[in-house]
Amino acid sequence: MAEGCERWSPAWLATQRTGCRTRAGDRRVAGARAPIRSAQRGARPLKKSHPVLERSKGDRFAFIAELLTQHDGYKVGPLCTRYGVTRSGFYAWQHRGESARARQDRALTVEIQRRFVRHAERYGSPRLHRDLVASGWVCSRRRVARLMRAAGLRAKAVRGYRAKAGIRARFEQHPNRVWATRVDRINRVWVGDITYLRVAGTWYYLAVVMDQYSRRILAWTLTGGGRPEKPAGYSA
């Protein structure tokens, strides 16, 4: 009993309150340091995150020239030192004409943009590279990808189909009687379906009626937009 009284004495409670504050302070410090540690582990190096430092010298020279044009207070020397190039190289780049490689890239970029639009913006670098090589162009897939990134071209991705929740249970409530029907002659069971397809940039709806036994198409209709018409020759 005496030990219990000492445990709940004012001195003992003061030590417990101090310990709680210390532990809470440690947790706050640990929580503040957690984003720093995670950034150090997962973040990219600052040099690789910079849009210019990991590029070619020509790109850095162009970036420096753009900075000098936009800001009057910038000097050539400090900028060249900052981006790891020499001042003499920058001046030589200013007076140097367009290289053969740059001219080829410019012509290839125009061709890539033309083919990209022709294929409805759905061709990425692999398919565009195969298309260019088949037409006689000499280039690599990585070069095509680099020029597409520089031109801001990004292929449209096809969204995958995701089944809605409960769709299977909904269809199970209405069993398909055709599957349970034994078809042994023509004109016993007719089946129909509707679909849509794109032709020359226009959506068309196709409705078909077929005899299940002979697989013969009895009637069909193709309409552009809106609801499809009743197939010709079909009566029910």
Description:
- 50% of the residues lie in helices and 12% in strands.
- It is elongated, with a radius of gyration of 36 Å.
- The longest helix has 33 residues.
- Strand 1 and strand 2 form a beta hairpin.
- It is mainly alpha-helical and 236 residues long.
- It contains 10 helices and 3 strands, in the order ααααααααααβββ.
- Among the domains are: 47 residues, no CATH class; 43 residues; 44 residues, no CATH class.
- It has a 3-stranded antiparallel β-sheet with strand order 1-2-3, with no helix packed on it.
- Helix 7 crosses helix 9 and helix 8 crosses helix 9.
Task: Describe the SSE topology.
Layout: H1 2-7, H2 10-42, H3 46-49, H4 57-70, H5 76-82, H6 87-95, H7 100-118, H8 125-134, H9 141-151, H10 167-172, E1 190-199, E2 202-211, E3 217-224
Antiparallel strand pairs: 1-2, 2-3
| Share of residues in strands | 5-15%
Spans of at least 5 consecutive residues with low confidence: 29-40, 43-47
Order of strands in the sheet with the most strands? Answer: 1-2-3
Number of strands: 3
One letter per element, helices H and strands E, the order comes to: HHHHHHHHHHEEE
In round numbers, the mean pLDDT is 78
Given the C-alpha coordinates, what overall shape results?
A: elongated
- Alpha-carbon distance between the two ends: 96 Å
Rg from alpha-carbon coordinates:
36 Å
Instruction: Return the structural class.
Output: mainly alpha
Report the biggest beta sheet as strand number plus sense, adding barrel if it closes.
3 strands, antiparallel
Q: What share of the residues lie within helices?
A: 40-55%
- The helix tally amounts to 10
